[in-house]
Amino acid sequence: MNLPLGLLRFLLLLPALPAGAAGGAAGVSESGMIHVPAGNYAPLLRTPKDPATVSVAAFLLDERPVTNAEFLTFVTAEPKWRRSAISPLFADASYLGHWAGDLAPGPNAPADAPVVRVSWFAARAYARWAGKRLPTTAEWEFTAGAGYTRPDGKNDEQLNRDLYAWLARPVPAVLPAAGRGRPNFYGVRDLHGLVWEWVEDFNTAMVTGESRGDTGLERDLFCGAGSIGAKDTTDYAAFMRQALRSSLKANNTTTSLGFRCARDLPQKPFQP
């Protein structure tokens, strides 16, 4: 098979990947995914009629965000998701705008850096191609709520310092490598401090029921007075994530918005 010269040069620079980690449903392995135990997520905003917490089933979550190298493998296999071919219905004009070409990420998109400037449609397509899915808001927030050394990170001073230092910094022109951040209690890295991340139900302004299929949404809450029903009005970072998600359209792309994938745990066979 003759590879484009730009792609060949890029692949030669890649670090060695474990078997099956390069992507594609046939090659997917559990390597690189973290088992997140079941628990309860307290939504940032809720009405008096809503339960205080949402149950989150145990699931698998990528240890780090998807990288340029991994997304390159995807667009190589799936040409319709390349920058020059994608429909404007599925991505705006800045889709992969920092890449040098369709199959040549170039110096502004290092192989091991998180892929950004990807739409929700593209992130979802990658996840399905890889035999995975995007995490729900409840799953992502539940996992991100952990501290470095305990499952509840609310009073983790070091985590809060790292988080708010990141929020105060401008987005660098070239993002650092994914997966080098300090792991949280569950072993997941870079949920804070690297990029924002797409979730499956990003446009669900409020989770009010079971995290996989909520239809009872109080959309009128998301106005200037939306913080009245907040569980914690001091959680500035959570409000930032909420504001970002509620402002996005599925074809939007930004310089600091990437994603990671999740997967349901295998069902245990029934034992009569």
CATH class division of the domain at 33-66 and 114-264: Alpha Beta
- State the helix count: 6
Low-pLDDT residue intervals, each spanning 5 or more residues: 5-29, 206-230
User: What would the principal axes of the Cα set say about the shape?
Assistant: globular
Give the radius of gyration.
19 Å
Sheet with the most strands: spatial strand order: 1-4-7
Mean pLDDT: 81
The CATH topology of the domain at 33-66 and 114-264 corresponds to paralog of FGE (formylglycine-generating enzyme)
Approximately what portion of the residues adopt beta-strand conformation? 5-15%
The biggest beta sheet, please? 3 strands, antiparallel
Task: Please give a handful of descriptors for the protein shown.
22% helix; 6 helices; 272 residues; paralog of FGE (formylglycine-generating enzyme); alpha+beta; 8% strand
Write the layout of secondary structure elements.
Blueprint: H1 5-12, E1 33-36, E2 39-41, E3 54-56, E4 59-62, H2 68-77, H3 120-129, H4 137-144, H5 157-168, E5 196-197, H6 236-247, E6 257-258, E7 262-264
Parallel strand pairs: 5-6
Antiparallel strand pairs: 1-4, 2-3, 4-7
